[in-house]
Amino acid sequence: MRMLALHLAVLAGVAALQFVLPAYHHTNAARILVLATYAIGFNIAFGYTGLLSLGHALFFAGGMYATGLLVDQGGWQPWAALLAGPAAGGVLAAGVGLLALRTAGPAFMIVTLMFAQAFHLAILYWGRFTGGDEGFTLSGAARRLGPFDLADPATRYGAAFLLFAAAMLGCLALVRSRTGRVLIAVRENEERTRMLGYDPFRAKLLALVLSGLLSGAAGATYGLMFGYVGGSFAAIQYSILPLIWVLLGGAGTVLGPLLGTALLFYLIDWASSVTTASQFVVGAVLILLVLFAPRGLLGLLRERGLRSLP
Amino acid sequence: MLTLEGVDAGYGRVQVLRGLSFEARAGEVTCVMGRNGAGKTTMLRAIMGQVAVTSGRIRLDGAALEGLAPHRIPQLGIGHVPQGRRLFGPLTVAENLEIGLMTRGRGSRTRERVLELFPRLRERLDQAASTLSGGEQQMLAIGRALCLEPKLLLLDEPTEGLQPSMIALIRDTVRRLRGMGVAVVLVEQRIEAVLDLADRVAFVETGRVALTLPAADLSPAAPQFARYVGV
């Protein structure tokens, strides 16, 4: 109960932020909330189930392109197209999982990376439909969900908040559920979980599909919110970023993805404003993190006393 | 209850079990003894489907186990407590037990029975498993296996590295399980534990059961211990 109250308080704080943030940070916060949703999806696979994928950009960009192409070229209503985003992420994750989950460890990383790279190359190859590297922009009508216009900053923040809140509370419910415990058991000791009568393959596939679904939802929402669908979202950078967000905030914690995404976002933002060698600064901070808080900031907090933090 | 007939099994090209035959009966404790590398742990792993059985038959109440998906085997009512306990460290005691309970759809009555066997676990329900003492971890490992309500329990050196009071508790638990009709297969190296608990003793040598004797026929100075265990 105490933990639920803590998470609800964080959500209340995030909801209240929109009323005090200046315009620049208001847009940043909306962006962070959607990217944190992507990180929550990644965390279900990596943080809770132990699946280190290097191909999550496939699910994020898959959701983004499914929604973007359907609304832009397929003539779908934005609402319907928005629902196609998570569906695409989930279906892609199921397809990848059925093959990639036959491997483990480094092989799993490489197989997932290859799938994502193939998708990225396919976007570039079929540039006539996808816009190639440059991508394509969405019209104002394509970004209007009934009476809600996502071009409006307040609406955009509201949409990002709703998506993030649903993902965060869903993740909290999952990890507190019996299914969530089985996922953690698989992460801790797959063989032992099998010897207690569970099929680790099914558990990992479920985790990957849920992860893909959330990643796809984040990608679809991101595309509609900012009116742009581009090939860079399918590049390897967008597979590495959620890993760093989750590691920074705390893998296997519900709030870690938000904290990590926000910190890295503003670290890059600040470093690039003071030096052209911003990547060097970011790299140095990440090295310090690995040295002093290898389980991430909330992981450190959990080690130092807040043991029940989910 | 459980029979193995002419089982060959191993790891890749390394064959460990060579025509091993073995039997465990309901309401009996069968101790398995042998030198290091004789194949005791591999025998338990073969029963659980963790190593490939290349020939022979493994039957539980007549049902074939070889060829079953490994996660199906515990669902038939076999609990396995391996060496090293292998708990889910970040999960609490209650959550570790719950994972055992969920497998066969068991509920609070089974959990209560386990907590009656190990009252210490009741005091630690909300504690992470990784923070328990060695003896408490072993209690939890056995308790989690008992959550499956097994008719056959495989214990691989459960008293290794434990203090005497814990050893006594675990032995007492094994006796109670035997009284409840559970077939217990106990891999054990301590002669006094074997003579105290066992109904029968199977001596394993180079991947097969070389000799099975009623425990009542053995004494601490029996030559079989020197011959097959080296003590």
Automatic annotation (TrEMBL), chain A:
Q: Where in the cell is it found?
A: Cell membrane
Name this protein carries in UniProt: Amino acid/amide ABC transporter membrane protein 2 (HAAT family)
State the membrane topology: Multi-pass membrane protein
Is Membrane set as a keyword in this record? yes
InterPro entries of this UniProt entry? Answer: ABC_transp_permease, LivM-like
Q: Which residues cross the membrane?
A: 32-51, 82-101, 108-127, 157-175, 205-228, 240-268, 280-301
Q: Which organism is it from?
A: Cereibacter johrii
Please state the protein's primary subcellular location: membrane
Q: Name one Pfam family in it.
A: BPD_transp_2
Q: What PANTHER family does the record point to?
A: HIGH-AFFINITY BRANCHED-CHAIN AMINO ACID TRANSPORT SYSTEM PERMEASE, SLR1201 PROTEIN
Signal peptide start-end: none
Keyword set, alphabetical order: Cell membrane, Membrane, Transmembrane, Transmembrane helix
UniProtKB/TrEMBL annotation, chain B:
UniProt similarity note: Belongs to the ABC transporter superfamily.
Give the InterPro entries listed for this entry: AAA+_ATPase, ABC_transporter-like_ATP-bd, ABC_transporter-like_CS, BCAA_Transport_ATP-bd_LivF, P-loop_NTPase
Isomerase as UniProt keyword: no
Organism domain of life: Bacteria
The protein's matches in Pfam families, at most eight in alphabetical order, are given as: ABC_tran (PF00005)
**GO: which molecular function terms?**
ATP binding
**For the ABC transporter domain, which residue ranges apply?**
2-231
The protein's name in its UniProt record: Amino acid/amide ABC transporter ATP-binding protein 2 (HAAT family)
**Entry-linked SUPFAM superfamilies:** P-loop containing nucleoside triphosphate hydrolases
Q: Does the keyword Iron-sulfur apply?
A: no
Which UniProt keyword terms apply here?
Amino-acid transport, ATP-binding, Nucleotide-binding, Transport
